[in-house]
Design brief:
The protein is α/β, with parallel strands linked by helices and about 400 residues long. It has 2 domains: about 260 residues, no CATH class; about 110 residues, no CATH class. The chain is about 40% helix and about 20% strand. The protein has 15 helices and 12 strands.
C-alpha cells in the first residue's frame, strides 16, 4: 500500500512547496511541487489529485493500492479507477489492476481560469503555442515548465538543463505577452529512476493537477498522431512509450475545475514542421535537441535534430535556411550523406525517422548516393556491436 498524507505548504528559500508525506511499507518520504512564493495561490492545497497521478505508474507496477487522507476530485477518482487503470492493466503486463481509496469531493477547485501549456522549444510544443493564439477557443495565457522527468536523462547535468529551460521560458513568455510558471519537484529523489518514456505523461499531468488554483484548461502537446494510438507498450523504446496512449491519460485526468486536451494529435510531425516553417517565431525558438541546453544552439547531430533537419531539407532550401539561427546549416549540409543515412537506417524503428525519410523520398529533393553507402556501413557496424554483445 502507498499511503498519501494530507497536503501542506512549506516555504523554503523564496519557494512555496505543495507537500504530502508518502508512506510505503516502513519507508516515509515527502513529495513536493514547488513554485515561486508569489505564485503560492496557484497550488492545489487540500486535494490528493496531483500526488495520486505522480505515483500512479509506480503503484501499478508495484501492485500497490493507493490510499489518500486528502479528498480527491470525484471525477478524477472515477476515471482513474474505472477507465485508465483497467485499460492499462489489461493491456500492459507490467501494470496491475490497483484501486485508489480516498474521500471524494465534487466541488470545483477555485482557480484563475487560465489556459496553459508546457514549453520545451520542440516541434510539438511550438505547434501547440502557434495554434492556440488569441483567435482560438482556448487561447494560451500561461507557459509552464516542469522539472518532472524530461531532465532526468541528463544525470548530473539535470538541474543545469532545467534552469536553462526556465530561462528560455521566461524570455519566450516575456516576448509574446504570456505568463511563465516554473514548477520544480523532487520526483527524482522520491520515485527513483523510472523510464522517462513510460511515465512522462503521468508526471506532466501530475504537475498540472498541482496548479488547479491557476488553470482551468491545459493543452498537452502530442508527440505522435492519434493514428498511432496503441496500448501495446511492454517494450520501453520509442515505439512503445506512454506517448502512444497519452490521449487516454488526458481524457482520464479531468477534474470538476480542470480540463485537459491533447494538442497536435490530428497531424504528423512533418506536417507540424511544415506549418511551423511559416510561423516566424519558430525560426528563433525551435529547439528539439536532446543534448544541448535550451539556451544553446541545437547540436544538429542527435536523433531528434537529424530527423527535423532532414525534414526541413526535404521541404526545400528556403525553408531550411530560415532556421540558421538555431541550427548550423552549413555543417548539416556538409554532413548531409551521413545525416540522411541515419534517417534511412532508423526508418523502421523510429517514427520521426520514418516520417522524415518518407517525406524525403517523395519531395523530389536531391538524396546523395553516398547516403546509401553510409547506411550500409552504419548497419554493419550496428550488427557487429549487437553480435559482439551476445
Amino acid at each position: 500500500m502507498i499511503h498519501i498524507g494530507k497536503s501542506y505548504i512549506q516555504r523554503v528559500d523564496g519557494q512555496s512547496r505543495l507537500c504530502a508525506d508518502i508512506t510505503i511499507g516502513n519507508h516515509r518520504n515527502t513529495l513536493w511541487f514547488s513554485v515561486d512564493n508569489s505564485q503560492e495561490q496557484y497550488l492545489c492545497l487540500g486535494r490528493a489529485d496531483a500526488f495520486v497521478m505522480a505515483f500512479l505508474a509506480a503503484a501499478m507496477r508495484g501492485d500497490h493500492e493507493l490510499v489518500c487522507e486528502d479528498p480527491m476530485s470525484e471525477r478524477l477518482h472515477y476515471q482513474l479507477n474505472c477507465d485508465l487503470i483497467p485499460a492499462l492493466s489489461s493491456a500492459i503486463d507490467r501494470y496491475h489492476p490497483i484501486h485508489i481509496t480516498a474521500p471524494l469531493t465534487a466541488e470545483p477547485y477555485p482557480n484563475a481560469g487560465a489556459v496553459g501549456t508546457a514549453f520545451s522549444g520542440g516541434v510539438d510544443s511550438l505547434y501547440t503555442i502557434m495554434t492556440h493564439g488569441a483567435d482560438c477557443g482556448y487561447p494560451i495565457s500561461h507557459i509552464v515548465v516542469y522539472n518532472s522527468s524530461h531532465f532526468d536523462q541528463f544525470g548530473d547535468k539535470r538541474q543545469k538543463m532545467f534552469l536553462a529551460n526556465c530561462r528560455q521560458v521566461v524570455r519566450f513568455a516575456g516576448t509574446y505577452g504570456l505568463q511563465a510558471v516554473i514548477v520544480d519537484t523532487n520526483f527524482y529523489n522520491v520515485l527513483g529512476i523510472e523510464s522517462r518514456s513510460s511515465v512522462f505523461t503521468f508526471r506532466n499531468v501530475a504537475c498540472t493537477l498541482a496548479l488547479q488554483g491557476l488553470l482551468s484548461c491545459y493543452l498537452l502537446s502530442s508527440a505522435f498522431s492519434l493514428s498511432t494510438f496503441s496500448l501495446n507498450c511492454d517494450r520501453l523504446d520509442e515505439q512503445h512509450t506512454c506517448a502512444r496512449y497519452d490521449w487516454l491519460i488526458v481524457i482520464s485526468s479531468f477534474t470538476e475545475s480542470l480540463s485537459f486536451y491533447l494538442s497536435g494529435g490530428e497531424i504528423k510531425r512533418w506536417q507540424k514542421i511544415q506549418k511551423l516553417a511559416d510561423w516566424q517565431p519558430s525560426w528563433q525558438w525551435l529547439h528539439p535537441c536532446w543534448f544541448n541546453a535550451a539556451d544553446k544552439t541545437n547540436c544538429g547531430c542527435c536523433g531528434k535534430c537529424i530527423c527535423d533537419l532532414v525534414t526541413l531539407y526535404a521541404l526545400g532550401t528556403d525553408t531550411l535556411n530560415r532556421y540558421s539561427k538555431v541550427f548550423n546549416i552549413p555543417d548539416f549540409l556538409h554532413h548531409l550523406p551521413e545525416r540522411v543515412a541515419y534517417v534511412i537506417l532508423n526508418a523502421n524503428s523510429n517514427i520521426r525517422a520514418k516520417e522524415a525519410y518518407h517525406l524525403l523520398k517523395n519531395s523530389g529533393v536531391f538524396i546523395p548516393p553516398a547516403a546509401y553507402v553510409y547506411e550500409r556501413q552504419f548497419r554493419r557496424a550496428m550488427e557487429q556491436r549487437e553480435g559482439g554483445g551476445q
